[in-house]
Known about the structure:
Layout: H1 2-33, H2 39-61, H3 71-95, H4 98-105, H5 107-119, H6 126-146, H7 154-177, H8 183-197, H9 202-211, H10 214-239, H11 244-250, H12 254-266, H13 272-288, H14 317-323
Keywords: Membrane, Transmembrane, Transmembrane helix
Protein name: DMT family transporter
Pfam family, one: EamA
Amino acid sequence: MAAGKGRAEATALAAAAITVVLWASAFVSIRSAGEHYAPGALALGRLGAGALVLCAVLLIRREGLPPKEAWPGIVTSGLLWFGGYMVALNWGERLVDAGTAAMLVNIGPILMALLGGWLLKEGFPRRLLAGMAVSFAGAVVVGLSVSEGGDSSPLGVALCVLAAVTYAVGVVSQKPALRHASPLQVTTFGCLTGFVACLPFSGQLASQVADAPLSATLNTVYLGVFPTALAFSTWAYALSRTTAGRMGSTTYVVPFLVVLMSWLFLDEVPGWLTLAGGLLCLAGVAVSRSGGRTPRPPRTRTVATSAPAGQPTSPTPSARRTAR
């Protein structure tokens, strides 16, 4: 049983790792596609591509509709996280630099841990809170090291904070839905809910797709297929097997991965301060995920009294009392 639990934890951790890598790549694609698509149009195109993939997989697996108990969490997370978060983040990244955006969005995991401890009764483990404090300090260092002179717009700052709030509330709303529906069902119908919420931007998307270069459109499709359809599914899978607070702590790796991807693909060499902040993020995640192991139940020992060969062993007095 211990081996099976260890494999389940390893699988959930691998799913979370896939999520953070793909979400980190999303920041690069958003910056590229956002030059040609407005925030709402980009969100609608991304959600549309993601919904097509998710619905196809759902039909192949024949999972059907989620039970009615899951719908409140699905609709809430779909409106806030899939819809509101993506529009707010796309808009905010147009008005603030990447470092400031990374710092502000990383308020989300802290809110997630607080809401999870309060609303979901997950508690407030000291290791989790300590690890998140270390990771947030690392995120601040990364953000300050790559910021572009501090010329951020107040509106952009407000939008990034709004993105963090909708992200946190969306995740906490999604967790109860996973008790009644599969991760694929929760992700698919959450994505469809966000898509429907963004339909008012359909006219904007239709007009801009005709003028946008192919690379921007391909980036939008990539955002829908990988950071949305795949990454949100692996996130839901991992979230169904751990607490919202611990899952939120893993996302502190994202800013550091964004820096590394910019280094690899955009030749943007990070400074030592950026690398130090990234190491702080990784250390905080390690601390936050190091505790919480369920102790093994004590083993019961059976003591038998010796008896001559061929005669049954007589029960002890305590065993006779228990039998009565």
